[in-house]
Amino acid sequence: MAKILPTYLDMIGFLDQNIHTDWSTIEAYRDKMGNPFDVQYVEGITQQTIGNLNCSPFVATDAEYLSNGLQVPNDGLDAELLHKRYAALLWKYGEAKA
Question: Which PANTHER family does the record cross-reference, listed alphabetically (predicted)?
């Protein structure tokens, strides 16, 4: 993924675009120029085990829950199952694009 995404963005010319967003002209961001993100601290969410430096499934899962407006579960994650799930989704996406 670390090589695929930059390659794809380069192929479609995304990185060549010089159009920058002027955030001060967007109403929703006018009062947030100094502090652009609303931060919420959440307690009791799942954490990776000590010695495991692979936080990818936790970040991806938390982002998925939060973007869907759901409460992040705190009953543990099966990291191996999540790896398989995201691999299957990427494979399916690749097959659909071919």
Answer: DUF1985 DOMAIN-CONTAINING PROTEIN, UBIQUITIN-LIKE PROTEASE FAMILY PROFILE DOMAIN-CONTAINING PROTEIN
Q: In Å, how far are 11, 40, 84 from 88, measured between CA atoms?
A: 24, 31, 6
Amino acid at 85: R
The pair of three-digit structure tokens given for residue 30, joined into one six-digit string: 């006018």
Give residue 57's pLDDT. Answer: 76
The answer to whether 74 and 46 have CB atoms below 8 angstroms apart is yes
Q: Cα separation of 27 and 54, whole Å? A: 38
Distance between start and end Cα atoms, the chain: 17
Residues of the chain where predicted confidence (pLDDT) is lower than 70: 1-2, 36
